[in-house]
Prior knowledge:
alpha/beta; Barwin-like endoglucanases
Amino acid sequence: MKVNVKRFITVLILLMLTSFVSGFIVGKAFSQKQPNREIKQQAPDFQEQESKSTALALLNQYDAIESDLKSEECWMSFIATAYCPCEKCCGKWAKNRPNGVVYTASGEIAQEGITLAADWNVLPRGTKVEIKGIGSRVVQDRGGAIRGNRIDVYFDSHQKALEFGVQEVQLKIEEEIN
Length: 178
């Protein structure tokens, strides 16, 4: 392969010249003085005050809209069932209760008004959720039939669990405790 030295040197010079010029342009662009951000000690200008108040009003309006959107976006639809510590609800696990204490899969003691069973791939253990119309619960348990967007609300009595039945609920994650 024959190399044309004259052509090689020309291309090399052009590349060096191009990189020098582009470096110079970029350097000029970033070396320009930034505007002075100090607060002026002069009497405030009416137009300046008006534009500041307009900007503040727009920011407040934006924050309110963003807050509304966040609260609306957080609600998810789940199928909710209920369970209690009896053998009908818990199967073989109901027979192994040390001192009658109901332990969850996370090792916590099951408590009505707190304990919730969920698929830990969807709602990880320790996640605190709010269920519309029911209240806050903590994911402490999981169950064989609880997969995907299904939850199981813990009650102390079988009668309360039956009364709860099966419902479609709206759920919002409050915080992940883990």
